[in-house]
C-alpha cells in the first residue's frame, strides 16, 4: 500500500470564478500566455466560451488541447470530479505532459461552494490535489447591480481569496471606490487587485 501523499506532493488547484461578463476569459487568456503558467492544466466548461484559437497547438484528445505555452486545456463536459481523475490518470500514463498546477474556470453563474466541497472531501481527489485558492473577477462597471441581483455573484465574492477588479478604466473613481468598500465589508480577508485588459501579475 502506497504511503499517503504529503501536502507538498499534492497538485495545487486554483478556482477561477466570476459573474457573466466580468472578464474571467480575458484574464485566463492573459495568464495562459505568461511564462510562469507553464505546466498548468486548465479545466474550462467548453472551449467555445474561451477564445483559445491563437494559443492552440494541437489536439491531444477530443476534450484536451495542448497550448503553445505548454499548458493543457481540458473541456469539462461531465462532472469536474471525473475530469480531474481522468486528467491525473492521463498524466500518469504519459498521455498528456506533466502539469504542476490546475486552474478550474467555472461558469459565470456557478456557485463555487460545491467545487470547493468536492475538492476537500472526495478521497480520490484529496490524495492527488489540494485547493490552493479561489480567485474571483468582479466587473467594476456592473458588479454593484450584480451583487444586488444575483446571489451567485455574492457567493463568488464572499468565498474568494483574491478578487480581481476588471473594467476599472471604464468605471468612475467614485463607483470603483464604493465597490472596494463593499467588497471589504463582504469579504474583509480577500486580497483585491485591479486588472486592465486582463493584465495582472
The general outline is globular
Note the run of SSEs as H and E: EHEEEEHEHHEHHEHE
First-residue to last-residue Cα separation: 41 Å
The poorly predicted ranges are: 52-60
Looking across the biggest beta sheet, what order are the strands in? 3-4-5-2-6-1-7-8-9
Strand content: 15-25%
Question: What is the helix tally?
Answer: 7
Overall pLDDT confidence: 80
Radius of gyration: 17 Å
Give the number of DSSP strands: 9
Q: Major sheet: size, sense and barrel closure?
A: 9 strands, mixed
Helix fraction by DSSP (H/I, runs of at least 4): 25-40%
Query: What structural class do you assign from the helix and strand content?
Result: alpha/beta
Textual characterization of the structure:
Residues 52-60 have low confidence and may be disordered. A nine-stranded mixed β-sheet has the order 3-4-5-2-6-1-7-8-9, with helices on both faces. It has helices spanning 24-32, 80-92, 112-121, 123-126, 143-149, 151-158, 173-186, and strands at residues 11-18, 40-44, 56-59, 64-67, 72-75, 101-105, 129-139, 162-166, 191-194. With 201 residues, the protein is α/β, with parallel strands linked by helices. A hairpin with a 4-residue loop joins strand 4 and strand 5.
Amino acid at each position: 500500500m502506497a504511503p499517503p501523499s504529503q501536502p507538498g506532493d499534492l497538485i495545487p488547484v486554483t478556482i477561477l470564478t466570476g459573474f457573466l461578463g466580468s472578464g474571467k476569459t480575458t484574464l485566463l487568456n492573459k495568464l495562459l500566455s505568461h511564462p510562469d503558467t507553464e505546466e498548468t492544466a486548465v479545466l474550462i466548461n467548453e472551449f467555445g466560451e474561451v477564445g483559445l484559437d491563437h494559443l492552440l497547438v494541437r489536439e491531444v484528445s477530443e476534450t484536451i488541447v495542448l497550448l503553445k505555452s505548454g499548458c493543457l486545456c481540458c473541456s469539462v463536459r461531465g462532472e469536474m470530479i471525473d475530469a480531474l481523475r481522468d486528467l491525473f490518470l492521463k498524466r500518469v500514463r504519459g498521455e498528456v505532459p506533466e502539469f504542476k498546477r490546475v486552474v478550474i474556470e467555472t461558469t459565470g453563474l456557478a456557485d463555487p461552494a460545491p467545487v470547493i466541497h468536492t475538492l476537500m472531501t472526495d478521497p480520490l481527489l484529496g490524495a492527488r490535489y489540494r485547493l490552493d485558492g479561489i480567485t474571483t473577477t468582479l466587473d467594476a462597471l456592473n458588479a454593484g447591480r450584480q451583487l444586488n441581483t444575483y446571489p451567485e455573484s455574492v457567493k463568488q465574492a464572499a468565498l474568494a481569496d483574491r478578487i480581481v477588479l476588471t473594467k476599472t478604466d471604464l468605471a468612475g473613481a467614485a463607483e470603483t471606490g464604493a465597490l472596494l468598500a463593499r467588497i471589504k465589508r463582504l469579504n474583509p480577508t480577500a486580497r483585491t487587485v485591479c486588472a486592465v485588459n486582463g493584465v495582472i501579475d
